[in-house]
Amino acid sequence: MINVPEPSWHGDTTSDTRSTVARAYSMDRRAVQREQTRSRLIGAVHALIIERRSTAVQMAEIAERAEVSIRTAYNHFASTGELLGAAMATITEEFAQLQPDAVDTSDTPPREAFRRLIRDWYNLFAVDADKLDAMLAIHDSEELGASLIEARNLRIDRITAILDRADEQGLLRVPLRDAVALTYCATGFASWSALVPQFGLDQDHAIDLMMESLLRTLFSDDARG
Q1: What is the dihedral sign for C-alpha 164, 167, 173, 175?
Q2: The whole model's pTM is what?
C-alpha cells in the first residue's frame, strides 16, 4: 500500500517566516533611514540659524547643507515653516539646558552658596559662549524668546533662594530686592562678556573680581569672612 502524503493547507511556514522577517527588516531599515534624513535636515537648519543668527533660511539651502534633494526635503517636511519649527524646538530645548545645577542652600552657608552660584554661571558662559551669543542674537523666534525669559526667571529664583537665606540670618547690608537685582545684573552673560572677551580678563580673575565685589557690596563685614 502506497502512503500518499496529506496536502498541506498552511504552505511552507519556513518560507513565510523568512518573508515576514525580511519585510519587517526592510520596513525598519526604511524607518531608520527616514529618521536619519529628518535629523540631517533639522541639523542643517540648526546650523544655518546659529551661523546667521536668524531664522531667514530657504529650503534649497537647507537641502544643500543636508546633502539631499529639495524633493526629499519636502517629502519629510511639507514646508520651510514646518522644518523651521522642528529646528527651533531643538534650539529652544538646547538653550533651556544651558544652566548649571542648583546650589543646595540647605547645607551650604549663604556666603559659600553665593560664591558657587557666581562661579557656576561664569564657567557655563565660558564653555558655551559661542552658542549663547548666537542664540541670544536670534530675535525672530517666539519660542526662543519664551525660553530666554524662563532662563532669566530661573536665575532670579536661584539668586533669591540664596540671598533670602542670607537675609534671614542677618548677613546682608542692603535690602534683599536690591541684592537680588545687583546679583542678577552681575551674573548675566552680558557681564561675563564684558569682563572676559571684551576686556580680556582671565576667567578665574573675572570670577574672583565679580565675586569679591558683590560680597563687599551686599554682605556685612562679619558675613564676608
Answers
A1: positive
A2: 0.72
